Amino acid sequence: MDRTTLDSLFDLSGRTAIVTGGTRGIGLALAEAYSCSGANVVVASRKPDACAAAARHLNTLGGRAIGVPTHTGDLDSLTALVDAAVAEFGGVDIVVNNAANPLTQRLGEFTPEAWAKSYEVNLRGPVFLVQAALPYLEKSEHAAVLNVISAGAFMFSPTTAMYSAGKAALLSYTRSMAAEFAPRGIRVNALAPGSVNTDMVRNNPPEFVDAMAAASLQRRVADPDEMVGPALLLTSDAGSFITGQVLLADGGMVAH
To answer: H helices of 43-124, where?
Structure first.
């Protein structure tokens, strides 16, 4: 291998990436990385102003980006997201299912409304977004799907059972998608972050955040930028022989 070949492994020039939940936290960090790697980026979140601001920011990094207001719990909205990406950039090469709903309730106190709201965003949305993008992924020579799950999918999670179970189910779908779509040239993997310094984590009581930090071998929470390396590996040519896998980026929280 020479330097040119090595540099090309993470080069995403000419590819189009959809990143849900792409206006803040892990999603924005990944969107920035894709822009800096040469990809066209489509950021999606529920808030139009946040989408517009993120797209403006990404364009200052030298890439091409658009923001598409999207509710991942709304199936029509997912179709519109894919249509917008194709209309602007001509196709879809990478889908990053990062958007999540942190809603959870204690076991024994679940409501049907909370259950539906959680799984519509955390499970149904990612599965149907991939389905909507599938005709375009099949045409790509570098198709990759990344489902962002959680280290909680591998742990006893009594206080976050609803959320963690949804992420565990998305891991199961990741493996099934990988097997189903491999003959079509589409790789599908999952990234399982541990505790990351995002709004979702910061909204917890300080003692809860401290406990999450202490649960990892590195005894800290991650910066969102620390998810960039794993995500780029799984969605670039550097990971061309990786599919159906989960990469735990959790500071040593889960032995797996």
So the answer is: 48-60, 75-89, 112-119
